[in-house]
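C-alpha cells incoming
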C-alpha cells in the first residue's frame, strides 16, 4: 500500500483540503485499498482543531466528502511510515528538512511540483480565498495521482 501524508502549517486548511480531495480522487479511481491518504501539521498552533469552516465550505461546494477530525502534528516516526510527504509551501519543506535530517530518502515534495509548477499553495488562512486554494490543491492532487497510480 502506498502511504501519502499531506502537511501544512496548522492542518486545518490546505493539508486537510488535500487529504479529502485526494481521498475522493483515490476512491473514484477504485484505489482506496491501494493508497492511504492522511494529513498533519508542521506546527502546533491548531493541534486538536477541526477543519477550518472555509475549507469545509469549498469542499461542500465541489461535492468532496469530509469527516470531522482533529489537527495532528507530524512526528519523526512519520518519515518512516509514509512513502510520500507532500508539503504546501517552502516553510513546510524547511520544517520537514529539519525533522527528517535533510530528507535522506527523498520523500518530501511540494504539491504543485507534481503539476509542473514551481510555486506554493497559498494559505487561505491569510488570503481568505479558499476557492483558489482548492483549484491548486485539486490540480496538484490530480497530477500526483497520475504519477503514483499503480499500473493495471
Amino acid at each position: 500500500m502506498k502511504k501519502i501524508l499531506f502537511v501544512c502549517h496548522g492542518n486545518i486548511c490546505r493539508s486537510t483540503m488535500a487529504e479529502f480531495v485526494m481521498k475522493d480522487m483515490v476512491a473514484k479511481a477504485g484505489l482506496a485499498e491501494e493508497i492511504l491518504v492522511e494529513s498533519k501539521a508542521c506546527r502546533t498552533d491548531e493541534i486538536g482543531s477541526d477543519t477550518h469552516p472555509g475549507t469545509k465550505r469549498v469542499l461542500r461546494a465541489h461535492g468532496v466528502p469530509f469527516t470531522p477530525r482533529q489537527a495532528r502534528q507530524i512526528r519523526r516516526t512519520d518519515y518512516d511510515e509514509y512513502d510520500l510527504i507532500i508539503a504546501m509551501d517552502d516553510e513546510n519543506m524547511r520544517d520537514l528538512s529539519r525533522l527528517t535530517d535533510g530528507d535522506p530518502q527523498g520523500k518530501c515534495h511540494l504539491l504543485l511540483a507534481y503539476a509542473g509548477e514551481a510555486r506554493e499553495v497559498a494559505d487561505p488562512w491569510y488570503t481568505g480565498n479558499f476557492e483558489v486554494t482548492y483549484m491548486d490543491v485539486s490540480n496538484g492532487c490530480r497530477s500526483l495521482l497520475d504519477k503514483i497510480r499503480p499500473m493495471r
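note: Strands lie at 2-8, 35-41, 84-87, 108-110.
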